[in-house]
Specification:
By secondary structure, the chain is α+β, with helices and mostly antiparallel strands. The protein has helices spanning 2-33, 78-82, 96-100; strands spanning 43-45, 48-55, 61-65, 87-92.
Amino acid sequence: MKTIKLGHQLQKGLKFFAITLLGGFCFIQGAVANIETPQDKMISISDHALHPISLGEVEFTVIFESGFGSDLTHLRKVAPAISKQAKVVVYSVPDMVNQIQ
């Protein structure tokens, strides 16, 4: 009887943990989405449109290219942190998905 009760408590605990973890993840995603990003204009290079953002004024330059089906918003926390040590250029190619198809 104790084994069944312990297993049931463990199952309830795991469910609570999973729900708490999922809720925390959703909260963090919402918070990251609300972080302001400098709005630069789109530039055209050949027949491609690029959305560049440049941060920092240091001697070295780090370039991030957004990819894997997402824009540059996933770098909102990384780029400002690195811009303290190096100039950071982040860009996304919004029309790349259309060109692949």
